[in-house]
Amino acid sequence: MFQRFVLGLASLLAAAGVSAQGGPWQEGKHYFRIDPPQATAQPDKIEVTEVFSYGCPACFSAAPKVKSIKGKLPANAVMKYIPASWNQGEQWPLFQRAYYAAEALGVADKAHDDMFVAIWGGGPLAVSVNGKIKTPAPTLDDVAKFYEKYGVKAADFTGAANSFAVNTKMKKADAYIKAVQADSTPTFVVNGKYRLNGQTAGSWDNLEAIILHLVAQESAPAK
Questions:
Q1: Which pTM does this prediction carry?
Q2: Which of 59, 90, 106, 161 could lock 52 by a disulfide, CB 3.0 to 4.6 Å apart?
């Protein structure tokens, strides 16, 4: 599984060298309509959602690019994150739980970039060493210790992580990912209606341009 994502990362990096085309962007080729569309949490905002995992090396590589897209969104749009859980080998279920616990405790945004570094930058939450799955794998207690630097007591973190509210959010995340048919990470969903990723877009420049195009399209007054 790790190898699959490394190969996916390599293709993304290769695609990044392709310059953005002016369009037109084709539905069914560069991006895909979601049927039925999924409800958004903030009806007064255009939501751009990244389906990701902290345990995904391609998501780690993409993080600066995702931040760039987030910074270019207009005032009426927001970036959201939905953590996936399908890869147990790289501890995705653990990191999905960690994300929602951190969100509940108000530190998810502050720790977002640092979590990737802690896992893929030789930090305390590494899931692989020299391309091989690390044994023993990081535990919830290890993650709780990581979040202490953000002012969260380990006991409070584990309590939140094991709460009914977090369990419910994890189930909802899995259901959402299935509904939008996201089967790779990172995948982006615009306003619950459109799905795309680096491969379908052709390059990261294209991906950014298409996301901003769809946001503008969703922002236009209904005729």
A1: 0.88
A2: 59
